[in-house]
Amino acid sequence: MSDKRITIRAAEAADADVIANVVAMAIGDEGVVSYCGEDYLAVLRAVAEARDTQYSWQQSLVAEVDGQTVGAVVGYDGADFKRLREETSTILERLIGRPRSIVDETEAGEYYLDSVGVLPAFRGQGVGRALVEAFAHRAFDQGYERVGLIVDFENPEAERLYSSIGFRRVGRRLFYGHNMWHLQLENSNTKRDTVGQVNITILGVDNRQQPLIGELTRLWEASVRSSHDFLSEDDISEIRRYVPGALMCVPHLMVAYNGAMQPVAFMGVDEHRIEMLFVDPQSQGRGAGRKLVEFGIARYGIESVTVNEQNPRAIGFYEHLGFKTFKRTDEDEQGRPFPLLYMKL
Questions:
Q1: CA geometry: angle at 322 spanning 318 and 325, to 5°?
Q2: Letter string b/e over residues 100-138, b meaning 16 or more CB atoms within 10 A of that residue's CB
Q3: Which pLDDT score, from 0 to 100, does residue 283 have?
């Protein structure tokens, strides 16, 4: 699997098919037929395509391996469970009649991981772990203190995966006649080291909360100090004032996370141009920047980038990816005396 690229991204309505398959796998053959009828995939697809339902694409992440969608994770604030279930029940009643009632599986006080799954051909390759870690990181970035889920007593392999990420048993629940462990992951249990990354996970960021913006601003400064030695302290302080606003406003913001789900790089794209790309100094040379650019080329059709002429490492990085200089200016775009190279594929 080391030669394959796992990418985690926010789901779209077009991902309803894979979300439906994942939810069906999570519920199980007997339960899903009882809950959704014989044509359960079509029913779950309708639920996934809708907004504000229990399995909506809005609160889902999907996994891609080399561009192929192979898995998904669905979850939401436990406090919203009953509201989301009501919307789900409305669709089920319209399609199959009154749905079977079920016990509550979550409650306020946790960000609930409802369903996670990977297509059979891609299991055992780290995709499930990447989905769960990305889901937890998104919850913590949004300010939640804990992530919760339930796992069947008879599925110790799944529990071992969750335990290896940091989940711990906090209780028991009965679900569809099965005894389930209630597991939770506390925010304080997340790992925050930048050393020894194994996989890089790319996440598109739509909900740009201040904790993440602050973290990316600190990453920006560390990166600039390691690579932009032509800038003075006053220059860095002046530019830093504009970084949070730029992070909030750039049309497409992507963050690369290491195996411990800490941000190690980020990239902003406007139309087909890279507006910003910065990598944490301790993670430079480990593939995060390259994967961000490759992801941006595939998803947003990146064609160009502007680089400081006094940053030879960045120039070499882009040249290695196939960019070529087509224009030079003596000043940057704010009129400061920092020459720029304009590069394109």
A1: 65
A2: eeeeebbeeebbbbbbbbbbeebeebbbbbbbbbbbbbb
A3: 82
Would the pTM of this model clear 0.85, i.e. be above it?
no
Question: Coil, helix or strand for 57?
Answer: helix
Q: Where are the alpha helices (DSSP H) in 102-177?
A: 127-141, 156-165
Handedness of CA 300, 302, 308, 314 (dihedral sign): positive
Q: Collect the ranges in the chain with pLDDT lower than 50.
A: 1-2, 189-198
Residue 165 makes CB contacts below 8 A (sequence gap 6+) with 129, 132, 133, 136, 185
Give the Cβ contact number of residue 178 at 10 Å.
Answer: 16
- Residue 302: name the closest of 248, 344, 250 by CA: 344
Question: What six digits make up the tokens of 120?
Answer: 């059979």
- Structural domains in the chain, sorted by start: 6-189 (3.40.630.30), 203-344 (3.40.630.30)
**What strand order describes the sheet that includes 168-175?**
6-10, 60-65, 68-77, 111-118, 146-152, 178-186, 168-175
The whole-angstrom separation of Cα 48 and Cα 57 is 5
